[in-house]
Amino acid sequence: xxxxxxxxxxxxxxxxxxxxxxxxxxxxxxxxxxxxxxxxxxxxxxxxxxxxxxxxxxxxxxxxxxxxxxxxxxxxxxxxxxxxxxxxxxxxxxxxxxxxxxxxxxxxxxxxxxxxxxxxxxxxxxxxxxxxxxxxxxxxxxxxxxxxxxxxxxxxxxxxxxxxxxxxxxxxxxxxxxxxxxxxxxxxxxxxxxxxx
Length: 197
Description:
Strand 6 (146-148) and strand 7 (154-156) form a beta hairpin. The protein has helices spanning 3-16, 30-45, 68-81, 106-110, 113-117, 126-131, 168-173, 181-192; strands spanning 20-22, 58-61, 85-87, 122-124, 139-143, 146-148, 154-156, 159-163. The chain has 197 residues and is an alpha/beta fold. The chain is globular, with a radius of gyration of 17 Å. Helix content is 40%, strand content 15%. Mean pLDDT is 75; it is low at 1-7 and 147-156. The strands form two sheets. It has a six-stranded mixed β-sheet with strand order 1-4-3-2-5-8. It has a two-stranded antiparallel ribbon with strand order 6-7. It has one domain (3-192): Glutaredoxin (3-Layer(aba) Sandwich). It is built from eight helices and eight strands; from the N terminus they run αβαβαβααβαββββαα.
């Protein structure tokens, strides 16, 4: 597969189905990226084959603009609770001298490597930011329900947002008194963090 075509495919996939997970213990090779794009292509062609996630879902929306200490703390807590860290997109690492460098290049993907190495589930999902009108991060979102759309992408119906640069344990604790599925999910996730604040 020609590289130009691959990056066009990957970018078009991001626009039509923006949920891409990065979970690797070593730096990504072009073969890793091709394998993920192949899996995404299969999910888009056959939505029934795509794994269905349990309801409700939790996400921690973050950005590289956050303080590194906060990002590392959230990565550790999110890993332990089994909650993905969600970024709007990749950082812009293009050099002015190299305008032909694709957006998804090894330098831009390398920014995620320390989080991946810590064991965090790192995802790109600009649609989640748009759907909940997220302008500042970090934010914890727990959706009430989710269903697979006809194009294979997950579409959340509605959810609860807990904004602020706080620990994941604190954000989850704010929802544990609820008497609905969100409260139930928050209690289960909070329990995974143990006595951690």
